[in-house]
Amino acid sequence: MKLNNEEKTMEISKEPEENSTIIIYCKEWCDYLRELVHLLREKQRSFTFIDLRFDTEKAKQLVSVLGNPLILPVLAIDDTYYEKPPISTVADILDLNGWKQQFDKKFYGT
User: Fold this and answer.
1) Which residues contact 55 (CB under 8 A, 6 or more apart)?
2) pLDDT tens for residues 58-98?
3) Are 51 and 27 in contact (CB under 8 A)?
4) Residue 40 DSSP SS3
């Protein structure tokens, strides 16, 4: 896809962006989590997995931000939290996030 703005053209690539920080917080594997991990791998996005059974401090931090009970898994993309979002929504967020990063890099140098 190309965008034209004052004779500037930007190619939107399908390559993964390395600037995104993606963290998955959960307590156990489930079908939803398998689908989420599959989507992230399919989109070639790296992520960190934190099992809250073994990181009670992180669990307390999430509860203080999101409230209790936590709806797991929680997906954090660039410090924005999503409690068990639909897989289609995650795909849209990742696509939009990658597009924004490429746009900012091209036009703002950030």
Assistant:
1) none
2) 999 999 999 999 899 999 998 899 999 999 999 988 888 76
3) yes
4) helix
